[in-house]
Predict the structure.
Amino acid sequence: MASSPVRFGVLGTGRITRRLVADLQSTPGVEVSAIASRTAERARWAADSHGIPAAVSGYDALLARDDVDAVYIALPPSLHHQWTLAACRAGKHVLCEKPVALTAAEVVEMIAAADRANVRFLDATAWLHHERTAQFRQWLSTATPPPDVATAAAKQDELFLDEQPPADPAIPFRVGPLRHVSAAVSFPNPFQSGDHRLAADLGGGVLLDLGWYAAGMIRFAHGGLPEQVYATAVMRDGIDVRVSATMRFPDAATATLSCGFDTTTRKWCEIAGQDASIVCDDFTRPWADKPARSWVHEASGKVHTFVPPSETQTDSTGAGQSQPGTRCHQEREMIARLADWIRIDTAAESVTPWQEFHDQAVQTQMLLDALAASIDAATPIDLAERV
Ligand SMILES: NC(=O)C1=CN([C@@H]2O[C@H](COP(=O)(O)OP(=O)(O)OC[C@H]3O[C@@H](n4cnc5c(N)ncnc54)[C@H](OP(=O)(O)O)[C@@H]3O)[C@@H](O)[C@H]2O)C=CC1
Ligand SMILES: O=C1CO[C@H](CO)[C@@H](O)[C@@H]1O
């Protein structure tokens, strides 16, 4: 029996809703039943533009509606905490834009509120849901080689020569023990004056806006938090517009982060292990008109281009050409995942597949907290002392 669609209500009518509302509407099993604005006129305009049945004046009024099962919170960062708590109180599931909140303490409260209300919570960090991220995860899960391989690795750097096929053909590369992660995300001045990204009271600043992605990639690649960080910021009108940071983990892995509102477009990362590195130059979101790009660089200098399975569909001529229509759409994957969680009968199942995403969100925000503290204090910060 087909389950009924998950009906989303949208809070906010800004820039991101132009894209995400269409993504919600085009995800199977999901509908958008209402959109709310602070003003009735703008709600009407947004509902008409997107073909949404109900235009709602005021966010509280949307939360009170019976035709809304879940909300998509597309408000400035300073409002995410408040409206997530309100949505949970109203019994609505939540998809909340990034950065999840202003501090890790707020994120912990938001997740606790969702747990108390038995509703699902997910942050809209879509790259975590791209199929290639699952492949990165798999390569990283082989980070610790068996002892005999580790000994061999210490003796020679030719483990990946072609004549030595890997043990598991499904995992053709082993990154080996993680040594360094580098993540850089920037966009050159894309904002109008008055934009929340440039307003301190709305949670502005590049560290929260784009550092969210870079810190998230570093946490994802390592799986834990550094023991020490040091960050510096270039400030303009009281807002951090460029941030650079270094960090060191308890296992001696290191990382560097760079983000900027005044630097050319970058959405890059390099995850370097002892044996190979994963390189990706569009990890936050593949370019709309191009296939997702990532590579594995072996110690020998050999480079392999990774083509996600959805981009290697054979076309009608059998030529194996990439077909854009079949490409992984990370936002729809994210929405479908949340809709699946909403349909899980938690009374019948003890699984909590959302836990890893909650851990990722909390720890990303903890890392940002530490970087902000380092910028403020102009000194390295020990995370162990902050937990
Ligand atoms: N996942 C992604 O790829 C992206 C995520 N984002 C994230 O989405 C969120 C929203 O960003 P974006 O859509 O660009 O922001 P916009 O400023 O374009 O829109 C924010 C909306 O929030 C509502 N709002 C409520 N209170 C305020 C306030 N005090 N000041 C301004 N707006 C307010 C407004 O809707 P109304 O007046 O109708 O109530 C406004 O349209 C941010 O957290 C951002 O980081 C942004 C871009 C991409
Ligand atoms: O998340 C985001 C993705 O890209 C934008 C740049 O145009 C960011 O500023 C935004 O908040």
About this structure: DSSP finds eleven helices and 15 strands in the chain. Residues 160 and 298 are 7 Å apart (CA to CA).
